[in-house]
Write a structure and sequence with these properties.
The chain is of the alpha/beta class. It is about 35% helix and about 20% strand.
């Protein structure tokens, strides 16, 4: 039995002429222990899909089953408890509360469960040690680097020992070094048997996934199993097309450079990139 099963699932926002079809009859089955990367252009429905799976949003049509249980049959309070105990969330913007230190931020989900302060602080401190943040447990969020803030957010997501981790662009605000640190943490979490769903625009991050789903216009248009450590085939096409250069690209880039860097002389530009200057005769012909 699949851990997560979606059958003809759709999500519609708005009414009348303002209606937006965010998810269009999604069919998806996810097994326990999979690491799934979700890719697609902005507006393709990636975040909406994760919000529905994470019980942050309700589908308009279709069936969502978690561990064989139909979510639509659960009352809001039951869904909230299921979300709290079974699912951990990591967001691009960290969502740490600015008035609480790191330790209290990580321990917050345990406070909602009614755990006594000393016990939840000890557990939060142990979780921070796992992500390499114990020495900063009394720091305020504003005193953390982006990578440190995201590691604290991951510790908070793991504090209830959820089986499912949902991460929406978790490296979107990080540099390459911090991105690797965060993704290695996700790899460790995955090796412990957790199911991970990660939205990303970065093809390189598919190396950590065991499966890649491609979305467009609210639909799943591709579903590829891949070996961990290897760039997914579909992601490889995206990667190389993103960095392809044409003569028009080079000219446009040169024009932007000249516009954005005042005082830049043509002599500073390699000869292969220097645009031709019009002669006086060519200028007179153009004027005629």
């Amino acid at each position: 039995m699949a851990l997560i099963e979606l059958q003809e699932l759709s999500k519609v926002y708005g009414f009348g002429e303002a209606t937006t079809l965010a998810l269009d009859e999604i069919e998806l089955s996810i097994e326990k222990g999979e690491f799934i990367a979700v890719m697609g252009p902005s507006g393709s429905g990636k975040t909406t899909l994760l919000n529905v799976i994470g019980l942050l949003d309700r589908p308009t049509h279709g069936v969502y089953k978690l561990d064989g249980r139909s979510i639509s049959r659960l009352r809001p309070g039951q869904q909230a408890k299921l979300r709290r105990d079974r699912i951990g969330f990591v967001f691009q913007s960290y969502n740490l509360l600015p008035r609480l230190n790191v330790l209290d931020n990580v321990a917050l989900p345990l406070a909602y469960k009614g755990m006594l302060p000393v016990k939840r602080w000890q557990r939060a401190s142990d979780m921070l040690e796992q992500v390499g943040m114990r020495e900063r447990e009394y720091f305020m969020p504003r005193h953390l680097s982006s990578g440190q803030a995201q590691r604290a957010a991951i510790a908070r997501a793991l504090i209830n020992k959820p089986g499912i981790i949902i991460a929406d662009e978790p490296t979107g605000n990080l540099d390459s070094f911090d991105s690797k640190v965060v993704m290695e943490l996700f790899a460790d979490i995955h090796r412990q048997g957790n199911t991970i769903l990660l939205v990303t625009h970065n093809p390189e991050l598919t190396r950590y996934a065991s499966r890649v789903i491609y979305m467009s216009d609210g639909m799943i248009v591709g579903d590829e199993k891949t070996a961990i450590g290897h760039l997914a085939k579909g992601a490889r096409r995206i990667y190389f097309s993103r960095y392809r250069r044409t003569p028009e690209d080079i000219t446009a880039g040169l024009s932007a450079l000249m516009h954005d860097v005042p005082g830049k002389e043509l002599a500073d530009i390699p000869k292969s990139s220097k645009p031709r200057r019009k002669t006086k005769r060519a200028s007179r012909k153009a004027a005629k």
